[in-house]
UniProtKB/TrEMBL annotation:
Keywords: Membrane, Transmembrane, Transmembrane helix. The chain crosses the membrane at residues 5-21, 28-45, 51-68, 75-98, 104-123, 130-146, 166-186. It comes from Anoxybacteroides rupiense. This is Uncharacterized protein.
Length: 199
């Protein structure tokens, strides 16, 4: 069922932000952004020949807002990495459309894993990975929609299927970052124990 992963991940994220995170401005903004995304997911607007969900536009605008705060080579690298993610996203969907036989796992999981792997290779910090995967996926969705439209196939940009893939990608990034932080914390504890070990 389309939308299952999106709604499940979104509510899990909202619960985590509301009840488990420290009371900061970032926590309030995250919880509000998740709720707004859920509410906007059922609404569409038509721009030209394309039907676009408001959740898609909201995610794209938020990602671009934070990306524009970067400058110099950091901005250039972010733009290049976003384009790489966009091409990977569009290429995966075109391959699935042309030859679905080669898929070994569910399409949603396959795309999410591919995007997560690319972002992990391109960036080292969670915030940059998150911005890259959101903006890159949105751009890739638009690229794919333009290609599909040339063949007169009906396609809604930012559908629940897209939101499923994006949500799973973000969750995979969060879990990987948590594992990285756990390993760093464990290493710090180990060194502290060795330092305090009596002679």
């Amino acid at each position: 069922m389309e939308g299952f992963y999106f709604y499940w991940c979104s509510w899990a994220c909202w619960i985590f932000a509301t009840f488990l995170m420290k009371k900061t401005k970032a926590r309030t903004m995250l919880a509000a952004a998740v709720l707004i995304s859920i509410m906007l997911s059922i609404y569409h607007i038509t721009i030209g020949v394309f039907s676009i969900t408001l959740s898609f536009l909201f995610a794209l605008v938020i990602a671009y807002y934070f990306i524009t705060k970067k400058s110099g080579w950091k901005l250039v690298y972010m733009l290049l990495s976003m384009m790489m993610v966009s091409f990977v996203y569009a290429a995966c969907h075109l391959l699935i459309l042309i030859d679905p036989v080669w898929m070994l796992i569910d399409k949603t999981w396959m795309v999410a894993i591919m995007l997560t792997f690319v972002c992990l290779m391109l960036h080292h910090h969670f915030q940059e990975r998150l911005l890259c995967i959101i903006a890159g996926s949105c751009q890739g969705e638009m690229m794919y929609a333009f290609v599909i439209k040339t063949y007169s196939f009906p396609y809604a940009i930012g559908s629940l299927a897209f939101l499923d893939e994006l949500s799973l990608s973000c969750v995979c990034l969060a879990l990987w970052s948590a594992l990285e932080n756990i390993s760093v914390y464990a290493d710090m504890v180990h060194k502290q124990m060795k330092r305090n070990k009596p002679l």
